[in-house]
Known about the structure:
By secondary structure, this protein is α+β, with helices and mostly antiparallel strands. It has helices spanning 41-46, 54-68, and strands at residues 17-18, 25-26, 31-34, 37-40. It contains 2 helices and 4 strands. The chain has a two-stranded antiparallel sheet. Strands 3-4 form a two-stranded antiparallel ribbon. Strand 1 and strand 2 form a beta hairpin.
Amino acid sequence: MLDAATCPKHLGARAAGSCERCGTFGCTECLDFRDFKWRCRDCLAREGLSLPSLRDRATLARAAIGATAGVDLLQSRPAGSSPKR
Length: 85
Ligand SMILES: [Zn+2]
Ligand SMILES: [Zn+2]
């Protein structure tokens, strides 16, 4: 059912998961995967935490997605290439 969810803040971006605390859906830009749980920015801020660097987040998100859905949600195609079809 997560497959049909989309990020409320990024139209067209598929939700990577939902916040463990408040249940908000979000894409990998909006959620942070920590301790095997997704947290939204609001909840992280509430806890006084900040999102890790972009590179760390991408790595974490990729691991999380691979572990849960096995779907490539990230824009993994190399820069400059245009999608075929
Ligand atoms: Zn939250
Ligand atoms: Zn988003």
